[in-house]
Amino acid sequence: MKRSRVNIRMPALGGQGAVTAAHIIATAADYEGYYAVSNPFFGAEKRMAPAESYARIGMTPIYDRGEVVYPDVIMVFHPQVITMGKSYTMPFYSGIKRRGLIIINTEEDLLTEEDKEFLESLEVKVLNFPATKFAIDIAGTELSTNMAMIGALFGAIGVVSVEAIEEGIKSRFLKKFVASGGTASLDSALERKFKKKLELIEKNLNTAKAAYELAQRWAQEQGLEPFLPPPPKKVAV
Amino acid sequence: MQTATDTVIYNRAGQRVVSPDYLLFEAPRTKHFMTGSEAVKEAVKRASVDASVSYPITPQSEAAHLIGELWVEGYVGVYFRGESEFGVMSEIAGCALAGARTITTTSGPGTLRAFENFPMWAGTRIPVQLVLMARGVNSPLSIQPDNLEVGFLLDTGCMIWYAENAQDLFDMILAGFVVAEQPDVHVPVITVVDGFFVSHTREAIMLPPDDIALPPYNPYRAPMPVIDAEVPPGRFLRDPFVMKSNYISYATHASWQWEVRSAIERSRPYAKHYLRGLIEEFGDPTAELVFVACGTAAAQAKEAVRLLEEEEGIKARVVKLKTIRPFPIEELRQAVKGARYIFVPEFNVVGWLEREVRRYLYGVSDAEVIGGPRVAGGMTMPAEVIVKEVLKLTGKEVKHVL
Q1: Is A179 at the interface with chain B, CB within 8 A?
Q2: Do A65 and B143 touch (CB under 8 A)?
Q3: CA end-to-end distance (rounded Å), chain B
Q4: CATH superfamily of the A5-222 domain
Q5: Within a domain: B189
Q6: In a domain, B269, yes or no
Q7: Where are the domains of chain A?
Q8: CATH number where B324 lies
Q9: B247 within some domain
Q10: In terms of CB atoms within 10 Å, which end of chain A has fewer, N or C?
Q11: Has residue B178 got a pLDDT over 90?
Q12: Any chain A CB within 8 A of the CB of B311?
């Protein structure tokens, strides 16, 4: 059965940027021409405490809100989600759908034989991907871990282009500088900030792109089909 | 439409003043991608707002903070921080009594802390707008979505409108000012959304340009004079009836309460026009299985209607209530004609909407009303859970959701 929607669950730790990631994922998918919604969920969380975000991408308008209980894709942002159970659900893959995908930010294999058996029975593919290492190597900061995760997601599910990811990242980091009603002005201080921001975006983009390419190759090796048909031609507005 | 001889009027922020109908229905719209909180900002930006008061605390959304940004940019006349939620709701009342168009936001425990003010707002007939992002109010503490607090607000004398998503919220905030400020209405409006599910969720939304705005509020059209210590409402705040234990003071109080409720009733034609109806219907109009819901529960019911149709071959439909006060009595009665089963899914444990639905369908509809499914305290209501509930009723075996 062809999918008409991809539900993505992102168990992460507070401070890793999973909320930002969800917003960029949805913005990029929207730009690509899909329907998309992002939906963070947290309590009074702090750094390193479990925090989850969700994104939904589909062929038809999306009404669904809240936690993704039955995900097609799970993106594990930190090994502690698995090793220390820092997850809203136990096990972290609970509810995963048949032919789903799990991307884990890790340098080593964290799954038990039992986990693997269960996931294989549902034909779920697992990509172990060192996103933090990637971020440090390419962007020079672990703060870009979320960018690597975004790139890996879209490389693996094959429905959103690098151009759309770029658009998603830009819309997150490039706020319009509106000084007063109707007049946009950039003074020199803002310009300097602006340059810094452009550098930040560049680094983030490079990280996401590299991860995209890696995951794309992996998906080809695994014989993964694109998770969704081409985007519905949304009415241009 | 403007002709060459019309005078073009600009508001304080330099935006061109247009009619509410033009802003809501006719102005060209472009697509944006934003959170519910940001949609609040976009609505306030186009609403010629005079004053807003905020109180920064968890749980809050970014909405109040974003209104502050609008003040910096010159779109909002006055903006300051209250001492507490009680302070905020009192101070915003002061601004409104002085003749300002006002808006503020709150949620969960903040709503309860401020509560005494809501019936006061209604009694003083000020058209304050409160954007309520419903969050839990119980102990053990929850700051997650749960709309029990809306049940508490039903009889405060404020209009209660319920938005399903960011788009609804944007349009409702603009319409809210217009309806609440009608001289024959002139009571507060509480525009509700579910916290997180709308406030923190990012989605596509269609917006008119931001160089046009609602006509400024004209306090001289109010049914009561702007603040004056010698005539109502100033007089009865300064020198309340309770100080005079006699029949006239009791009767004045009682009749005034009736008047506030009548004012809400008089909002119906305006709300119908500016909200394009008090209800919205989704799904096969002949279906005997009907979900009556508001907010996110309506959204989840729409997903359930799709699942039921695609996977179980069961026809169903949703009647989404956009207003709770006034309650769309006639609209609901018409919409559920031919219904056999009415489910009322809700994000609270008590089922306040089920009570409302039963009350207004009693003796009118033969359908069986089923209060549920219900989740609370931050729980999500997956469409699969709603489907399961329906299948239980039909005696069908519940298939594994995978």
Answers
A1: yes
A2: no
A3: 55
A4: Pyruvate-ferredoxin oxidoreductase, PFOR, domain III (3.40.920.10)
A5: yes
A6: no
A7: 5-222
A8: 3.40.50.920
A9: no
A10: N
A11: yes
A12: no
> Cα separation of B341 and B358, whole Å?
12
Are B77 and B174 in the same domain?
Answer: yes
What are the tokens at A222?
């695994």
Residue-number span of the structural domain to which B25 is assigned:
16-220
Contact between B382 and A69 using a beta-carbon 8 Å cutoff: yes
**pLDDT of res. B249:** 80
Is the same domain home to B210 and B310?
no
If one counts the domains in chain B, the total is 2
Q: Kindly report the CATH number assigned to the domain that includes residue B78.
A: 3.40.50.970
Optimal mutation site among A8, A25, A65, interface B, most CBs of chain B within 10 A: A65
Mean pLDDT lowest for which of A37-46, B258-267, B297-306, B322-331? A37-46
pLDDT tens-digit profile of B8-27?
999 999 999 999 999 999 99
Residue B32 lies in a domain: yes
Q: Residue B312 carries which DSSP code?
A: I
Confidence tier at B58 by pLDDT (50, 70, 90) = low
Q: Inspect the interface and report whether the beta carbons of A43 and B74 lie closer than 8 Å.
A: no
Burial class (CB in 10 A: 0-12, 13-18, 19+), B233: buried
Q: Closest approach of chain A CAs to the CA of B99, in angstroms? A: 23
B284 in the same domain as B216 = no
Answer for the pair B75, B113: CB distance below 8 angstroms, yes or no: no
Question: Pick from B220, B251, B270: which residue ends a domain?
Answer: B220
pLDDT for B397 equals: 65
Report the SS3 class of residue A17: coil
Structure letter (DSSP) for residue A34: S
Q: Could you tell me the two tokens for A200?
A: 């930040």
Element (H, E) at A73: strand A73-76
* Percent of residues, chain A, with pLDDT higher than 90: 73
B259 CB contacts (<8 Å, ≥6 apart)? none
Q: B34 and B130 share a domain?
A: yes
Which of residues 74 through 133 in chain A touch B, CB cutoff 8 A?
97-98, 122
Q: How far is CA B73 from CA B41, B79, B82, B105, in A?
A: 12, 12, 21, 19
Task: List beta partners, residue A125.
Answer: A101
Confidence at A48, pLDDT banded by 50, 70, 90: confident
Please report residues of A whose CB lies closer than 8 A to that of B201.
Answer: 37-39, 65
Beta-carbon count within 10 A of B22 CB = 15
In the A/B pair of chains, how many CB contacts fall below 8 A? 92
The string of pLDDT tens digits covering residues A118-138 is 999 999 999 999 999 999 999
**Closest B-chain CA to A36:** B203
- Considering the domain architecture, whether residues B213 and B288 belong to the same structural domain is answered as no
Q: Cβ neighbours of residue A150 under 8 Å, at least 6 residues apart?
A: A21, A24, A25, A28, A165, A168, A208, A211
Amino acid in the structure at residue B343? F
Bridge partners of residue A213, in order along the sequence: none
For B274-315, what is each residue's pLDDT tens digit? 999 999 999 999 999 999 999 999 999 999 999 999 989 999
Helix (H, G, I), strand (E, B) or coil at B74: coil
Q: For residue A228, what are its two tokens?
A: 């969704």
